[in-house]
């Protein structure tokens, strides 16, 4: 069996990305491989403390956990797991199989500048990318002529599944609300849900996924960070799940589908490769279109039930073990010296995006609604400071043209 090292970024409580890294490292050690974790936050915690933190926060145990990336001992295979770890793996002095565990197109985490370009450079270092989902191989092939293997988005069906006793008839929407993560488009989602609440006042809006409360101007409930079983209960009690992710699909829509919850997401290059069109409604990335997608499902019980069944059926073929075995097969192929197979996935979702018509836009105007780009409204705080004055100037120019 092989010795496999992982360079893991600083631990973040509640991080799905960390859970996925650790889950796959744990799978390899169950297959008999020896896994060593090198944790980025070596200056903050000792190796002993880090070793205790992993099972406490994420439930996985590893025998060999080390602080820092400064001294990586020889191993048969080494995984980068975040863009700035790819260069560390590239520059290792010993011979090994150099891999890149890719969960997002991380260059999009940053404005166009050095960080964006350097994150893209991580795909140019000659590592072997293994991605979650089918969009990233297409992206890497088109943009960098780089081959990548992939494994499917899956869910733990022992955790995420329908519970008929929790179903109810009231109208409710849950939204994964993470203002600290720009790729989750918290402001866009809140704008859309504000329209939903205005058009359907009886609909209950539930936010979850972060300790950050944020600024929300309509009646809602924020449940903060939830455990896995609590998430499944929420998905079973709600009518629609809203999840927005712009750098790759999140795992969350797949967990929602496993629980039988209809999903609304943004229609984009990154979402059409993995999400099924009979269980998910993909919308243009405007608040009005997202609101229309949600309201259409809320108003059609037959369609909602059909979407729920389709999602559950889709995920029956994607239990957690399926994705782990796909990943394990790629790792074994590399260890056997066979290299990566040439993967060129095709989009799964082929419907046009849901679009709010021009006539509907006027109907969505909400008295007293806080416009996201209204000067002096306090709603520009999510923009980088240099852009706020630009945005305000643009709004003033538009107003002058209208006057």
UniProtKB/TrEMBL annotation:
InterPro entries: WsaF_C. The lineage of its organism: Bacteria, Pseudomonadati, Pseudomonadota, Betaproteobacteria, Nitrosomonadales. Residues 173-294 form the WsaF C-terminal domain. It comes from Candidatus Methylophosphatis roskildensis. It comes from the Bacteria. It holds the Pfam family WsaF_C. This is Glycosyltransferase family 1 protein.
């Amino acid at each position: 069996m092989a010795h496999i090292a992982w360079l893991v970024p600083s631990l973040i409580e509640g991080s799905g990305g960390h859970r996925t890294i650790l889950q796959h490292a744990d799978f390899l050690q169950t297959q008999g491989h020896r896994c060593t974790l090198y944790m980025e936050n070596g200056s903050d915690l000792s190796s002993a403390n880090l070793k205790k933190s992993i099972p406490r926060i994420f439930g996985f145990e590893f025998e060999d956990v080390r602080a820092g990336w400064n001294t990586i001992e020889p191993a048969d295979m080494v995984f980068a797991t975040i863009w700035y770890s790819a260069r560390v793996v590239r520059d290792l002095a010993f011979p090994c199989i150099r891999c890149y565990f890719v969960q997002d197109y991380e260059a999009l985490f940053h404005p166009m500048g050095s960080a964006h370009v350097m994150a893209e450079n991580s795909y140019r270092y000659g590592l072997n990318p293994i991605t979650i989902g089918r969009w990233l191989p297409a992206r890497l092939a088109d943009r960098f002529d780089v081959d990548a293997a992939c494994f499917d988005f899956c869910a733990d069906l022992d955790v995420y599944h329908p519970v008929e006793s929790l179903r109810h008839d009231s109208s409710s929407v849950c939204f994964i609300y993470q203002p600290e993560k720009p790729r989750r488009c918290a402001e866009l989602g809140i704008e859309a849900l504000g329209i939903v609440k205005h058009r359907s006042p009886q609909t209950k809006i539930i936010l979850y996924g972060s300790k950050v409360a944020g600024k929300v101007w309509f009646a809602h409930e924020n449940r903060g960070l939830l455990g896995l079983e609590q998430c499944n209960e929420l998905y079973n009690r709600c009518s629609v799940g809203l999840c927005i992710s712009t750098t790759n699909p999140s795992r969350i829509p797949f967990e929602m589908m496993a629980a039988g919850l209809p999903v609304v997401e943004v229609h984009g290059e990154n979402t059409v490769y993995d999400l099924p069109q009979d269980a998910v409604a993909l919308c243009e990335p405007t608040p009005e279109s997202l609101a229309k997608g949600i309201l259409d499902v809320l108003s059609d019980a037959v369609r909602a039930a059909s979407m729920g069944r389709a999602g559950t059926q889709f995920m029956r073929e994607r239990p957690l073990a399926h994705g782990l075995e796909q990943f394990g097969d790629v790792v074994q192929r590399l260890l056997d010296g066979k290299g990566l197979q040439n993967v060129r996935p095709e989009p799964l979702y082929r419907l046009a995006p849901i679009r709010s018509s021009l006539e509907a836009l006027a109907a969505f105007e909400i008295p007293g609604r806080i416009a996201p780009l209204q000067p002096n409204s306090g709603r520009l705080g999510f923009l980088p400071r240099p852009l706020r004055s630009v945005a305000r100037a643009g709004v003033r120019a538009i107003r002058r043209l209208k006057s």
